[in-house]
Amino acid sequence: MNRDSLLNKISNGFQVGCRFSFLNKDKVCWSSVGLQKWEGKYKVYVDEILESMMSSEEYLREEIIEFNTIDDALIFIEQNTNAKINDLAPCKGQRIFNPSHS
């Protein structure tokens, strides 16, 4: 999805995100990153969990951060997660996070 289409979806309240794996100190780590405009703010959800810890649900990281602008939210994703902005896509079916929670 091109950047303009992505920004349009986000501005219209659609949740975008991605789920992926990466190596963390030679161990497989799974991550979810989501972004949604909610009540005038932009909420970014990030979680990271080692594959070996999935059954016990012991996350290395799980947080929702709120931003005033879409640019600040995208910069945070680029600089603080392993997600790439180009990988974010509208969520179909199950969402990555519930934006009403903080």
Automatic annotation (TrEMBL):
- Top-rank taxon, per record: Bacteria
Q: Could you tell me what this protein is called? A: Uncharacterized protein
Give the organism the record lists: Buttiauxella ferragutiae ATCC 51602
Q: What is the lineage of its organism?
A: Bacteria, Pseudomonadati, Pseudomonadota, Gammaproteobacteria, Enterobacterales
